[in-house]
TrEMBL record:
This is Aspartate aminotransferase family protein. Its cofactor is pyridoxal 5'-phosphate. InterPro entries: Aromatic_deC (IPR010977), PyrdxlP-dep_de-COase (IPR002129), PyrdxlP-dep_Trfase (IPR015424), PyrdxlP-dep_Trfase_major (IPR015421), PyrdxlP-dep_Trfase_small (IPR015422), Pyridoxal-P_BS (IPR021115). Belongs to the group II decarboxylase family. The modification N6-(pyridoxal phosphate)lysine is found at K295. The keyword Repeat does not apply. It comes from Streptomyces populi. One of its GO terms (biological process) is carboxylic acid metabolic process. Signal peptide: none annotated. The keyword Lyase applies. The lineage of its organism: Bacteria, Bacillati, Actinomycetota, Actinomycetes, Kitasatosporales. Gene3D superfamilies: 3.90.1150.170, Aspartate Aminotransferase, domain 1 (3.90.1150.10), Type I PLP-dependent aspartate aminotransferase-like (Major domain) (3.40.640.10). SUPFAM superfamilies: PLP-dependent transferases.
């Protein structure tokens, strides 16, 4: 054994304690450190010939790289849709690395059984029935890809061909209909060989909405003359957190033949609150569902889940036919359900957080985040230099400059807020107007944090250079 590696093994408790102390320092300082880092990054160093050991590597990281990491796990990072890591999920994540379980199969470990238990808890949390079977994946993009891969196989079943055996070319033209699809959907269509051009955008409701017009969707499906299709419904759009009427969309299957995939990456968490659960009424009627966990469940990256009613088709797509792995049976191993064979035990951080805080603890996070989004929205609506681009429907505030909201000026505002170190928001374009998004999904965010975010935005929107 390499002498440096051997020495690290002998001192493993001390090394883990040093890492623990450093991590505590970093996490404890999230409230005070700059939310974003915009400085010049260090130039890459050459690979060292001789190692410095774990202690030397930690010192080198702390000196060279750690100062440039963002405060994305903190309370005022409102870009994209970014959660943090609850104390319990962080604990579970550390143990995930310590145990280093490969959850490809169930042999020789309780790890797969724990993952099944966690999936059952999540299924219950989102109001899905036992007909839905799930698996952990890396994020919403892969979750959408898996769901649409199963939909692709369903199309083959309906047309009397086997996509898994004969390829996507056997399908012929494919129609994928959606009102406001996330960009990961078109990426998935490209990866799956269906093509970005197979997506047909259906008009949305009038009046500053992103939800699909169900009557127009009905007409679009009717124009297919009975040809089976895929419908991607949205439970929480990125810009304004608008929700398709899932029950009304699902009811169209009484007249039309289509697979219903629901992208509920973060909007699915509305199910946790009695006040907002009506937004996802009908989610259980979907054929496949995408939910991202490193968003509103506040577990570390990377973690998401996918659910489907047709696990038999999922196995047909993803099964790994190898003598040493065995063929999938009635309870297939996870390697037969997703693109990955080997992967880490992503379920453990989620299990820890759900076990630690339960339904009520996570409901409180969701409801507090929504209340804070509305607080920010109300202040922006009253600010002379700002205006809302859409109502605050759940946890995202979409807003812009009151005057001359060009792409350059809006980006300059985003850059100025980030450079202040007070907050981080991301630019967007909604209904032809450039704007900014503030997405609340972090368990730490408070009223005081929200007020600091508003103060930073208001202060910099008045700068002459914008």
């Amino acid at each position: 054994m390499d002498p440096v590696l051997s020495a690290d093994l002998d001192r493993l408790p001390e090394l883990l304690q040093a890492a623990r102390d450093f991590a505590v320092q970093e996490v404890s300082g999230l409230d005070s450190r700059p939310v974003a880092r915009l400085g010049k990054t260090p130039a890459p160093d050459p690979l060292p010939d001789g190692g410095a050991g774990a202690e030397g590597a930690l010192a080198r990281f702390a000196d060279r790289w750690a100062p440039g990491f963002s405060g994305s796990a903190g309370p005022r990072y409102l870009g994209f849709v970014t959660g943090g890591a609850t104390p319990a999920s962080l604990t579970g994540d550390w143990l995930t690395s310590a145990y280093d379980q490969n959850v490809s199969g169930a042999a020789g470990s309780f790890a797969s059984a724990l993952e099944h238990e966690t999936l059952g808890w999540l299924r219950e949390l989102f109001g899905l029935g036992e007909e839905h079977h799930g698996a952990f994946v890396s994020g919403a993009t892969v979750s959408n890809t898996v769901g649409l891969a199963v939909a692709r196989e369903w199309l083959g079943e309906r047309r009397g061909v086997s996509v898994t055996d004969d390829g996507v070319g056997a399908l012929g033209p494919v129609d994928v209909l959606s009102g406001s699809p996330h960009s990961s959907v078109t990426k998935a269509l490209s990866v799956l060989g269906l093509g970005r051009g197979s997506l047909r955008r259906v008009p949305v409701l009038p009046g500053n909405r992103e939800a699909v017009d169900v009557e127009r969707l009905d007409a679009a499906l009717g124009a297919l003359d009975g040809r089976p299709a895929v419908v991607v419904a949205n439970a929480g759009t990125v810009n304004t957190v608008d929700f398709d009427d899932l029950r009304a969309v699902a009811a169209l299957r009484e007249r039309h033949d289509f697979w219903l995939h629901v992208d509920a990456a973060f909007g699915g968490f509305a199910a946790l609150s009695p006040e907002y659960s009506s937004l996802v009424a009908g989610l259980d009627e979907a054929d496949s569902v995408c939910v991202d966990l490193h968003k509103w469940l506040n577990v570390p990256y990377d973690a998401a889940v996918q659910f489907t009613r047709r696990q038999d088709l999922q196995v047909r797509v993803f099964h790994n036919a190898s003598p040493y792995l065995g063929l999938p049976g009635g309870d297939p191993d996870f390697l037969h359900l997703t693109p990955e064979n080997s992967r880490r035990l992503r379920a453990l951080p989620a299990w820890f957080s759900l076990a630690a805080y339960g339904r009520e603890g996570h409901r409180e996070i969701v409801e507090r985040n929504v209340a804070l989004a509305r607080r920010l929205g109300e202040r922006i609506a009253r600010a002379p230099g700002l205006r809302l681009l859409a109502p605050v429907r759940l946890n995202v505030v979409c807003f812009t400059l009151a005057d001359d909201p060009t792409e350059r000026r809006v980006q300059a505002l985003a850059d100025a807020v980030a450079a202040s170190g007070e907050a981080f928001v991301t630019p967007t374009c909604y209904d032809g107007t450039h704007g900014l998004r503030a997405a609340f999904s972090n368990w730490r965010t408070s009223e005081a944090d929200t007020d600091r975010v508003f103060a930073a935005v208001e202060r910099h929107c008045a700068e002459p250079r914008l």
